[in-house]
Amino acid sequence: MKWEHLTSPKLGAFDRATPVVLNIGAIEQHGAHLPLETDALIGRHFTDRLDAALGDNVLILPQVAVCCSEHHMSFPGSLTVRHETMLAYVCDVLESVVAHGFTNIVLFNSHGGNLAIGQVIVEKLGHRHPKVNFFMLTWWKVAGDKLRALQESAFGGVGHACEFETSMIQHIAPELVDTDVIRDTPLQSTFGWADADLLTGGRGSHQRSMAELTAHTGVFGTPSLANAAKGKAIIDIVTDELVGMLKDIKARPPKSA
Q1: DSSP labels, the chain
Q2: For residue 256, what pLDDT band results from cuts at 50, 70 and 90?
Q3: Which pLDDT value is given to residue 254?
Q4: Mean pLDDT over all residues of the chain?
Q5: Would you kindly state where each structural domain of the chain is located, as residue ranges?
Q6: Structure confidence at residue 257 (pLDDT)
Q7: CA distance 248 to 243
Q8: Alpha carbon distance 24, 113 (integer Å)
Q9: Least confident residue range of 94-103, 108-117, 185-194
């Protein structure tokens, strides 16, 4: 159920073990062929799917669409907030949920730039509220092996505005994809041991702007291998995994300390 669609008495009647899900996305460049709202659109689509699948066994909070995208700001249209701003804002929102007695809170992430601050958020709140479960779930991490089986590109083909993201938008909103300007951009490597993509992590971390990472194209990967059928398959796989995780979260007994 969508949190904001409920009346106060109906919200008050919910089982406090019901998972409460907050999507954190992004409004930022995705090359020449995908819209600025790509990450936010993908996040909303997943939460809509969860709402349809789980009904009153899940509560979906209003999305936080503009998050941490400083590394995209050399591209027109990208929006960002400081890590400190996001930490304060999201913690305040989730503190409101805790104040209403809910004990299972899920930060659902659909943007790579939110990974670090998202983990800080769940750790900060988890230490503050030891009887509440806090989770962070990121769509490309919850079903890595199954998603890897769909990948046609080599390592580096799934990164940003890539084979996967382009496929998903072709399924969700094909009218927003400009297929005439799709261009592949290989991973711009500096330190091989730090190279990573959505499904394969590096052995270390090397911070670079998206302009540096993509040779100023805004694309990291192989969007030429995208198609709508693949996008639907990705979404179905991830949705099934998320549904199972949320059912598992609700079924566990509450924390005692």
Answers
A1: -BGGGS-HHHHHTS-TTS-EEEEE-----BTTTB-TTHHHHHHHHHHHHHHHHHGGG-EEPPPB-S---GGGTTSTT-----HHHHHHHHHHHHHHHHHTT--EEEEEE--GGGHHHHHHHHHHHHHH-TTSEEEEEETTTTTHHHHHTT--S-TTSEEESSHHHHHHHHHH-GGG--GGG---B----SSGGG---SSS--SS-----HHHHTTTSS-EE-GGG--HHHHHHHHHHHHHHHHHHHHHHHHSPPP--
A2: confident
A3: 85
A4: 97
A5: 3-8+17-247
A6: 59
A7: 9
A8: 10
A9: 185-194
CA nearest to 45, candidates 134, 110, 106, 93: 110
Whether this model's pTM surpasses 0.90: yes
- Which phi and psi angles does 240 have, rounded to 5°? -60, -40
The dotted CATH code for 3-8+17-247 is: 3.40.50.10310
Of 76, 100, 142, give the one whose Cα is nearest residue 11. 100
pLDDT band at 255 (very low <50, low <70, confident <90, very high): confident
Report angle CA 223, 28, 238 to the nearest 5 degrees: 55
At 76, list the tokens: 């027109």
pLDDT tens digits for range 32-63: 999 999 999 999 999 999 999 999 999 999 99
